[in-house]
Amino acid sequence: LTTSVLFAATKYQYTEAFTPSTLQSSRRNHQTATATTSSLFASQDMFVDKTATHSSVTTYYGETLQKSSDLKTNACCTAASPFPHIAEAIKKVHPDVISKYYGCGFCVPDEVEGMTILDLGCGAGRDVYIASQLVGPNGRVIGVDMTEEQLKVAKETQPYHAEKFGFDNVEFHLGLIEKLDDIPSLKDGSVDIIISNCVINLCPDKESVLKSCHRLLKPGGELYFSDVYANRRVPKELQEDEVLWGECLSGALYWNDFQNLGKKCGFKDPRLVEDAPITVENKAVQQKMDDMGHSKLEFYSATYRLFQLDCLEPHCEDYGQAVVYKGTIPRFESGWALDDHHYMEKGKVFPVCGNTFNMLKETRFEKHFDFIGDWSTHYGIFEGCGTSMPFSSSAANGGVSTKGGGGACC
Questions:
Q1: 176, 315, 316, 352 - which has most CB atoms within 10 Å?
Q2: Dihedral Cα 332, 337, 342, 343, nearest 10 deg
Q3: Percent of the chain with pLDDT over 90
Q4: CA gap 84, 395 in Å, rounded
């Protein structure tokens, strides 16, 4: 992930400090479904010409960037040290693959042995080859990317990794992540987990990507990905800047548009796992943004998990339920976090909303929990749920990165 995972009890203090004043007023006066729909239409209007964007991104990642150090900002850089087991897996990845890594975090979730994983925008294959080791010989990892130069490196090093790991469980496909239908081997309901590492923001048709993910996932599967988000909608003049788009900034979705879009595509309760602010550590790039009058535009690297569960509700409802973590997920014997505010200690009764109950009971995590309660009585909205900016690393929320916790469900 983008920042180290140090889980601490966190309770959100909801604020709309990062919401434009005109939108705040609109929310107060028009809390209707129409407002949500118009918000989605507004986000669709943001996208620039798709063909030009694909060409620009392909050129930037295939020709302009030759190694990680060629990046002009830290938006596509990982700041924290990986967990020991991930560090060991990285050591087995070919140096040519590592040198062409442009992601903003490591985005493979826990409990993946034997799973089928799809990596969207796999590039030269770093995360594919890490995931290959984690799923093991009985699992499968599929990489998709639109850049031939990147995939060439991934495929040329495939024999090296097969010998290093003792098995070959990966495959790579050239294609657009918003046109996954064009890849015959990808069947509906065939994938356990979809990952993506700082790539969806580069795609001009994000809705098609999310709809395809929902279609390809098995029931109970999840889209688990790191990406870049903004505190407001990115202006058109910045979207048209090829360098800023390639640096993962101009294509960043406004966080609320993303959540609404995810729900529209069938992911009813997007869960934030972790976030951290992005600093544009390049004077020329920052000056360009300032000169355009966008000095208040802020970016965040965040990891989300979106479950393919039709039983989820639009909001977190209270049914008096609870779970008890058994301490059986490898490397998390003392406690485990579902997301940034559900850290569950081993053996401790942990009250949850109905959505969290289902995210644990109707997925691969069921065997690691005991479940308390049923659906017979509804007690209203789960205490602490809200709809304001979720990133605890924002200045308005104290500037502290989100690292886990317990309490609220939104």
A1: 352
A2: 30
A3: 58
A4: 31
Q: Which residue has the tokens 């644990």?
A: 360
- Answer whether 78's CB lies under 8 Å from 99's CB: no
Per-residue exposure over 18-29, b if at least 16 CB sit within 10 Å of its own CB, e if not: bbeeebeeebee
**Dist CA 273 CA 343 (whole Å):** 11
Cβ atoms of 100 and 60 within 8 Å: the answer is no
d(CA 81, CA 148): 30
Q: What is the distance in angstroms between the CA of the first residue and the CA of the last residue of the chain?
A: 20
Between CA 91 and CA 95, with CA 92 as vertex, the angle to 5 degrees is: 75
At residue 131, the 3 state secondary structure works out as: helix
Is 2 a residue whose pLDDT tops 70? no
Q: Where are the alpha helices (DSSP H) in 82-226?
A: 84-91, 95-99, 126-135, 148-156, 158-165, 206-216
Cβ 303 vs Cβ 2: under 8 Å: yes
Task: Summarize pLDDT for 273-304 with one digit per residue, the tens.
Answer: 999 898 877 788 888 888 888 888 999 989 99
| DSSP letter assigned to residue 61 | I
- Tell me, rounded to whole angstroms, the distance of Cα 189 from its chain centroid: 20
Core vs surface per residue 271-286: b (16+ CB within 10 A) or e: bbbbbbbbebebeebe
Supply the mean pLDDT for the chain: 81
- pLDDT tens digits, one per residue of 26-75: 333 333 333 333 333 333 333 334 444 455 445 544 444 455 445 555 55
Structure tokens at 398: 């104290």
- DSSP, collapsed to helix, strand or coil, labels residue 80 as coil
